[in-house]
Amino acid sequence: PLGAARSPAASKWVRLNVGGTYFVSTRQTLCREPKSFLCRLCCQDGPELGSDKDETGAYLIDRDPTYFGPILNYLRHGKLIINKELAEEGVLEEAEFYNIASLVRLVKERIRDNENRTSQGPVKHVYRVLQCQEEELTQMVSTMSDGWKFEQLISIGSSYNYGNEDQAEFLCVVSRELNNSTNGIVKEPSEKAKVRHLLRCIV
């Protein structure tokens, strides 16, 4: 009597032994993708699959259990959730093995998006510190080109004396995005600006 009461529920649930790790799910979940390996294994149970079972009655699947979690969760709720410590390529490999076409597309899109973000990389800047006199300051700032932007102006007092007039000296800090340059080679600031000295480069 007890066994008869449990049999309907037992037939609804499927036990999987994936690489030595046990997973339990419903036939409805595993058959969400009709053409998938899991659907053929658990719902059709065709002899052509050679579906061996272990001593507990679980279907034996010789695959890495680490990447099976995202596969099973996708079948449960239709969302791709991958823990940070898991490689997306590993999930893609399993999705292709289990023949879950919609998941294969999702993982490939995720990998492509990540590659695009990585190729762009974080924005890096190159800084130049330029020394100029007060009378050259306006012209220097107004004629900067090639992607250089004004960052900061630092007064360093008077270093030169022409006749009776002191000429105030300034350090002008400019920057540009490193990605704007070809192959990482940064061009010098525009020569239109009358710059006295190129003191240093801060990367």
From TrEMBL:
GO terms for cellular component: Cul3-RING ubiquitin ligase complex; cytoplasm. GO terms for molecular function: cullin family protein binding. SMART domains: BTB. Pfam families: BTB_2. Residues 12-115 form the BTB domain. It comes from the Eukaryota. Gene3D superfamilies: 3.30.70.2000, 6.10.140.750, Potassium Channel Kv1.1, Chain A. GO terms for biological process: proteasome-mediated ubiquitin-dependent protein catabolic process; protein homooligomerization. This is KCTD2 protein. It comes from Fregetta grallaria. The lineage of its organism: Eukaryota, Metazoa, Chordata, Craniata, Vertebrata. The gene is Kctd2.
